[in-house]
């Protein structure tokens, strides 16, 4: 037999893995911080390039002014060619600056500088093209002097904006790096502390035994006392699984004893109850002697109570037979015919309260079934719908052939089923919250019988409901394949 690890050993392994993960995360965060610092240095280099370009612009502007002055004095066209060459270099330098990753302030100053430069070039166009006569060269150069002054100012503004952006970027990068590093160390410390102080979290996340125990607990809560836990890999859970299996076995034995007791008591009560009901009927027929009004009222109440008790005993016996696996003879039957017959009976029962029962069934909705059991299914669903339907309400019964199944739906206009009760309403003796205040309520076996009948025929049952807007119980049974036929019209049974 393989040696089983203890929970402590598993926790130690989990802690080691967790610490390793924390170290990897820490290294990752430190690397991220360094990357942030590197990015800051790259920004610094960009700003430095921008500063160098600004210095070059100043030098070129000086060269332009010097060339222009020499041209004014000598009128030598060679200086015009030199002026044009330097002008093109200034334009190319501005275009290179525009491609750098600048912030909004830098771009604003660069646009102002470009505007000033374009304005100067436009005003210098006659000089550049040699269209100004020698006597007027000095005047033309004097016109350009203020524009050069403005351009120098723009270069200075761009340089100042670049320095401010550099300072801001470096400060933000440094703050971000410091903050990220502090957060990383704090997160690592907190995670490490939690991993030491809260080992239960790791037990839940790594233990398949706990998941199996959870599934077993849910199965027992559903009433499945045949559920057995597999023997776990840890010593503690192996012992727990053994105790759990012993508990479920004993619960199963107690449940079987309870079912057998209810079945025997119900059967033993059936005969004396029938005698009591017959005696009450004889007394009501006044065969022995005439009855006073008070005596008749008491006997009628007695008979009504006896009928309710008889119905309860009948349901107990029915449920006992179903749970005992009493064999049923399954033959093909048209479920629509059974639905119409049950609908007629329910309509008569609901006539006093003005409740209508509408049956809409597809033709040839054939199911291989025990017709008497399926009739009991309809009777119980309709009895439940009548109990919760308001006066003047309508109960809709539909039978539809969908692919290889026959879908039976019974829909009422009652208060509906709360979401938290939709699973429990099929349990034995469970009473919905709304049903506890209904006069003449049953004992909570009708829907349980419906579930057992559906399972007996290889089907299923469920409920759809919006609280306050009625409930729709849907039963799916395997259909017998027949050729498709048109749907029969809805039939109102009253």
Description:
Helices cover 65% and strands 10% of the residues. The protein is α+β, with helices and mostly antiparallel strands and 494 residues long. It folds into 3 domains: 7-197, Four Helix Bundle (Hemerythrin (Met), subunit A); 230-322, Signal transduction histidine kinase, dimerisation/phosphotransfer (DHp) domain (Helix Hairpins, Orthogonal Bundle); 328-493, Heat Shock Protein 90 (2-Layer Sandwich), CATH 3.30.565.10. It has a 6-stranded mixed sheet with strand order 6-7-5-4-2-8, covered by helices on one side. A hairpin with a 5-residue loop joins strand 6 (460-465) and strand 7 (471-478). Helix 9 runs parallel beside helix 12 (446-456) and helix 11 packs antiparallel against helix 12 (446-456). The radius of gyration is 47 Å and the shape is elongated. Mean pLDDT is 76; it is low at 484-494.
